[in-house]
Amino acid sequence: MQENLILAIDTSCDDTAAAVTASSVVLSNVIASQTDLHRAYGGVFPTVAKQAHRENITRVVELALRRAGVTPSELAAVAVTQGPGLAPALEVGIGFAKTFAAEHELPLIAINHIEAHILSPLAQPKSRHGSTLSLFKQVVDINFPVVSVVVSGGHTQFVVFDEIGRYELVGQTLDDAAGECLDKIGRMLNLGYPAGPVIEKFAAHGNPKRFEFPLPLTQAKDFNLSFSGLKTFARNLIRDLGGPESLARQDLYDLCACVQYSVFRHISYKLSKLLQEVPAGEVWLGGGVAANTELRKTLRTTIADHTKTAHKNGQANIPKIRFRAPYSKRLTMDNAAMIAVVAGFKLRRGEFVKDTTELDRKPRWEVA
Ligand code: KG4
Ligand code: ZN
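Predict the joint structure of the above. Result:
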């Protein structure tokens, strides 16, 4: 047994994922995507997801162990997503993890999927020279408080924390998540599912200023978000342009650029308000939409503008805010390496599931 090797499993939504880490170093990160299965439904269909998880999970776990070059006897613990997510999908991962833990006499660690997106920027690649940071050194390096921005297909929220494991939810979407909004508008444009990556590709050829989308919730003093108005605006615009079939190529590109711009501008606007209230040392980005290069650029600009404004207002000494995002796209989408990163902290704190037979899914588990 090696003291820090963790096998983690995530079956919270439509991807069957397993990974092995040593502390926060990713040794393997296997994801069996069900995207093609669900495309026919234009979204995720829970019972179909459950069946596919059942078919994939053994193979995915074996592959994760093989790619990491690790045998079950070398593991220190097994971690599994307990929630939030689709109940039938979560059930498969939890059931597998319980059996695996019992069979190999390993402790079991239950993980919140959103905490994993929050901490995903801490995952480190396997270095050829072995010069990766220990978890302890990584934590010492963090300039708290951290403002985490989680932007996925199911969640869009701002979380503030002063220590790993204790989170304060300071703002969240009141309706659709940002990724969900992109997916729904993409559906109106017949872009397939999920539409986020296609919108990013098309947006690169479009003019983000051609159509003036609204900026939501500017009157509200809080840090909540709302994307349903942008969705309605897009629906009307597409109708006014004659419907999706009659759009010229450039119209489609411009629409995608404007949709993406307005969704990210809304997040950026609320983040800049939040930075005026919280003396953040770092801003972290996680979640499926964090794969988007334009979103990363927008947040970096938001942080830089915040610092510039503070300097202009005479706060010459405010420290530079550090921006962190996951080192690879495979860590932004649903994956198990991020689950293992959280488990690394819980392993050090000895936070194991006491009675594994009792462990049940928590489909609506809030992180804070
Ligand atoms: O975190 P995730 O894999 O699943 C959830 O837990 O929701 O996020 C999936 C979401 C989808 O809405 C998808 O359209 C979006 O992330 N997404 C993107 C990009 N890649 C994935 N959105 C914008 N640009 C991308 N490159
Ligand atoms: Zn997710």
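The pocket of zinc ion (ligand 2) is lined by residues 113, 117, 152, 334 (CB under 6 Å).
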